[in-house]
């Protein structure tokens, strides 16, 4: 029963993840795929008072992009998402928009080089504005060769202390895929945070095992010493 419930919630989590892609209309080749759950952590300054709000995507209105774009005189690929956030009502009907720009270099197959979030008022968020990429905290969404990027939570910093969290993120750009989903044999590069965590786990386990061995050894030596004092033959 427990396993069945776990499997149900795991499938529910996968099914609820947002799925976006950009396909070249002329060739039918997909160049960008982005899967994940978005959380927008917004910060507004009003009369020297800081207000913080959190928003998620309720439903997607429109997705488009360009597999052959230009940004700052370099070839890029773009993903543009228009969506309705949670808490939006008929009183505040305007959708939000997220624009993501992917670039490439000799060392990288792709990397997010720019992004902008345009927000509107909702019943839950009384302020609105445009949030741009924080160049000091742009995140590490990048991969090499033909690999994709994977992260439990990819963080994209925005100017003013705001940020975008992409949970259970799977991303690829500058790809040449015949479908709109990740291939079953796709190779992923893990983000720095997850890679660091995966290194820490075996170290902690190893330290615990070493401590256990020391405790057992000390216990054995103490028992042996007591046995000698009582005149028993040593084992």
One letter per element, helices H and strands E, the order comes to HEEEEEEEEEEEH
Low-pLDDT segments, ≥5 res:
1-15
Separation of the first and last Cα atoms: 48 Å
Number of domains: 2
Globally, the shape reads extended
The main β sheet shows up as: 11 strands, mixed
Q: Taking Cα atoms only, what radius of gyration do you get, to the nearest Å?
A: 25 Å
Structural class determined from secondary elements = alpha+beta
Helix proportion? 10-25%
* Beta-strand segment tally: 11
Task: Assess the beta-strand content as a share of residues.
Answer: 35-45%
CATH class of the largest domain: Mainly Beta
Structure description:
The chain is built from two helices and eleven strands, in the order H-E-E-E-E-E-E-E-E-E-E-E-H. Strands 1, 2, 3, 4, 5, 6, 7, 8, 9, 10 and 11 form an eleven-stranded mixed sheet that branches. The protein has 235 residues and is an alpha+beta fold. The protein is 23% helix and 44% strand. It is extended, with a radius of gyration of 25 Å. The protein has helices spanning 2-16, 192-229; strands spanning 18-23, 30-46, 49-71, 74-85, 96-103, 110-118, 130-132, 142-143, 148-157, 163-172, 188-190. Strand 3 (49-71) and strand 4 form a beta hairpin. Residues 1-17 form the signal peptide. Its main location: membrane.
Summarize the structure.
The chain is an alpha+beta fold and 235 residues long. The chain is built from 2 helices and 11 strands.
Give the topology, please.
Blueprint: H1 2-16, E1 18-23, E2 30-46, E3 49-71, E4 74-85, E5 96-103, E6 110-118, E7 130-132, E8 142-143, E9 148-157, E10 163-172, E11 188-190, H2 192-229
Parallel strand pairs: 9-11
Antiparallel strand pairs: 1-2, 2-3, 2-10, 3-4, 4-5, 5-6, 6-7, 6-8, 9-10
């Amino acid at each position: 029963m427990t396993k069945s419930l776990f499997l149900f919630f795991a499938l529910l989590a996968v099914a609820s993840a947002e799925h976006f892609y950009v396909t070249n209309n002329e060739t039918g080749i997909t160049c960008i795929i982005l899967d994940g759950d978005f959380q927008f952590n917004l910060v507004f300054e009003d009369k020297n008072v800081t207000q913080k709000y959190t928003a998620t995507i309720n439903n997607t209105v429109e997705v488009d992009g360009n597999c052959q774009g230009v940004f700052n005189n370099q070839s890029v690929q773009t993903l543009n998402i228009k969506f309705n956030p949670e808490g939006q009502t008929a009183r505040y009907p305007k959708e939000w928009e997220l624009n993501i720009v992917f670039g490439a270099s000799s060392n990288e197959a792709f990397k997010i080089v720019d992004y902008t979030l345009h927000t509107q008022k909702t019943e839950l968020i009384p302020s609105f504005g445009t949030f741009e990429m924080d160049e000091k905290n742009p995140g590490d969404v990048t991969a090499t060769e033909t690999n994709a990027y994977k992260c439990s939570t990819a963080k994209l910093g925005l100017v003013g202390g705001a940020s975008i969290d992409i949970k259970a993120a799977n991303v690829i750009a500058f790809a040449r895929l015949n479908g709109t989903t990740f291939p079953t044999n796709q190779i992923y590069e893990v983000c720095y945070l997850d890679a660091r965590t995966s290194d820490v786990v075996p170290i902690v386990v190893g330290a615990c095992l070493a401590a256990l061995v020391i405790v057992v050894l000390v216990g054995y030596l103490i028992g042996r010493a007591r046995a000698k004092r009582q005149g028993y033959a040593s084992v």
